[in-house]
Amino acid sequence: MASVSPSPSCSTIPTPVRRSPRAAFAVAELRRLKHRRSLPPVSVGLGHVADVVRHDVEFLKNKIGIGIKWANEAFRVPEVKKTAEELFWLRHLEDHVSPPLEPPSWPQPSYSGLSGVDLFMADVKALEAYAGYIYCLSKLWSRPLPEVYDPQAVADYFNCRPHVVAFRLLEVFSTFMIAAIRLRTSASDKGKNLEASGQTFGIVLKETMLHLGPTFIKVGQSLSTRPDLIGTEVSKALSELHDRIPPFPWPEAVKIIEEELGAPVESFFSHFSQETVAAASFGQVYRGRTLDGLDVAVKVQRPDLRHAVLRDIYILRLGLGVLRKIAKRENDIRVYADELGKGLAGELDFTLEAANASEFRDAHSRFSYIRAPKVYQHLTRKRVLTMEWMVGESPTDLISISTGCSDHDSESHEREKLEARRSLLDLVNKGVEATLVQLLDTGILHADPHPGNLRYTTSRQIGFLDFGLVCRMERKHQLAMLASIVHIVNGDWASLVEALTDMDVIKAGVNTRRFTMDLEYALGEVELKNGIPDIEFTKVLSKILKVALNYQLRMPPYFTLVLRSLACLEGLAAAGDPNFKTFEAAYPFVVQKLLTENSTATRKILHSAVLDRKKEFRWERVALFLSKNSTRKRWPLVISSRDETSVHSSSNQTGSDVDTVSLVLKLLASKDGVVFRRLLMAANGTSLIRTFISKEANVIRQKLCTTIADTLYQWMVGVFGIKSLKFISLSDPPPSSRTNITVEDFKTLIRDKRVRVILRKILESAKTDRVLMLRFCWTSFVMSLTTSALACHRFVISVSEGYVNYLSMSAPVAIRT
């Protein structure tokens, strides 16, 4: 039988089967499962699970973020959100041109002798009154928030919108609850130390303040200036609230600028950076260049800011009202919320800030170390402020550099740290000086000098920014503040109560004797260091405030702003130098002002400080005054650290003592010595002479002899022409102090008729006591002999040394060897 070969069409070679994508995926999954079963089991730890979960969460966040971005663009979510916000705040009902409404008058009921028609007409009038009342209520919904803070207008606005207040309260409560849970969770980690826990608390608190908005950010900024109260780590975290707040988008800023200026940005600026230089609680700053080529800083207000700020102030006012009822206080503590509201509402109007800046600049233009930027009025509106660009370093940057550490190039890093520390201490010293000038001289006080609002310029000036909160003090309040500082140092509590009365802290009807006792109990425990209270000025004011609140007294508005300003300053000083004391730095300024300002009020303060009721000097206070005034002469020039200064001063204590005597002699004949001469004329001359010849004044007499001997030595050198001889080279005598009196000064002092009148008056008042005059003449004679002996001894020694040096230099080399 013949075999038949198979045809190609009947071949047994398998042909590939076409599968659907779903079937192919199923086959691939089966193969992957078989491969996984063939692999040995692998142990999976909790760390691996956490990593997988974290990667999955990041993947989901990324994809969800992409989806949200697409939804915002596709469904116009921002526009819908803005419309919903308008409906939430009921802004579509506001009428900005509505005239002020007068409350409707209610009809008085009267029924005697009325007919039915009369009653009907009365009902019609009542219905008319009710209709007017309902119309008035309906108009309240259309009234916008006031431009100037008015508690009643703000209350009327939010009374019509209770849902806004309720949602805000819920938001605040939930935010703080979440923060508490985060802190509790982080505290359960036992491996964290105290520093790490403080850092965590600061970060959580900063994020909470950021989430709650501008008003809470302002509170956080104030807290960040007090590291002595809240701790260094918390203060460091909150300090980021000064200029590191998340900015709002650039298109919104451009829209606000164009709405306020009425034209595109390009028509006013040749260059305008789209990156924010700094973002603050109420606005953010951009750098630009005008068409004239001037570099400027443009501050743009955050959108919809007024509603959010005044809402929080209204809630704070409600809370203080509830607290007042619970505590059963007679005085209305809601005024503190009103003062805060006035300040914050003023900061919302940039035209007011521009006026404050110009006034501050003009008032302090005569002080070379104070700088304020110039305002460009033609580029400034209510929500846009354009000022001169100020180049300088922030105190926060100086602190971070001076306290930072680095392993690379340690020598250059240490040099940079030293320079930053010197700049920071110079900034602190000039900050104290500037604050005292504002507080006691010009009366225009920058009430918010936190590190974000200060700059240390390249010309070693202290620059001030952000003038939204400025305190203006009356002259009587300045003098009362000056007197209170002196009375606190002297421990004169009765006079301090009088000064507080002049400051409008103590009102009429208060038991001043009992108030004085409570004040002495609160401040009597303050320790003194070199005659100066060893305590921060803000703590003293806080103690005074606490005593005043116990008497249910209301603090004047400026007092709160002064306390805020000094708190910011002392916080910065504590960061720069933990040993810094405001009283120690401020008292020389106070003393110099009292000794140089010739006015009735300052003379009264000075007399009450250094004279008793018998017109006799309180010498311990006089010595403190003169020593601090001599310190004041060189205090503004201090750039080195306070530790170095203290060492230098301790090594030259004798020179400082003689400096005080020289200062007195110079004041007697100088133009600035008017107050001092009047003080000597008002004093008891007999007491002066008796004190001068006493044993306790022996040190003063020695200093006076040394000073006069130095002057007499200079006169002898000039008279005998020793310096003109070429064969004698006299070394200059080491000056005992920077204010060493010269021969010309001494001649001026002797020839001055005013000094003669003072001496004659003192001697005439002591003429009746002949024993006292005899002792005074003997003491003067001994002092004259001592002074002449010292001067002649010094002159002979100087000539001898000069002649010996000349002989040794002119002798032959062979003889000298």
Automatic annotation (TrEMBL):
Top-level taxonomic group: Eukaryota
PROSITE patterns per record: PROTEIN_KINASE_DOM (PS50011)
Annotated Protein kinase domain residues: 271-618
InterPro entries per UniProt: ABC1_dom (IPR004147), Kinase-like_dom_sf (IPR011009), Prot_kinase_dom (IPR000719), UbiB_kinase (IPR050154)
SUPFAM superfamilies: Protein kinase-like (PK-like) (SSF56112)
GO molecular function: ATP binding; protein kinase activity
Sequence similarity: Belongs to the protein kinase superfamily. ADCK protein kinase family.
Annotated protein name in UniProt: Protein kinase domain-containing protein
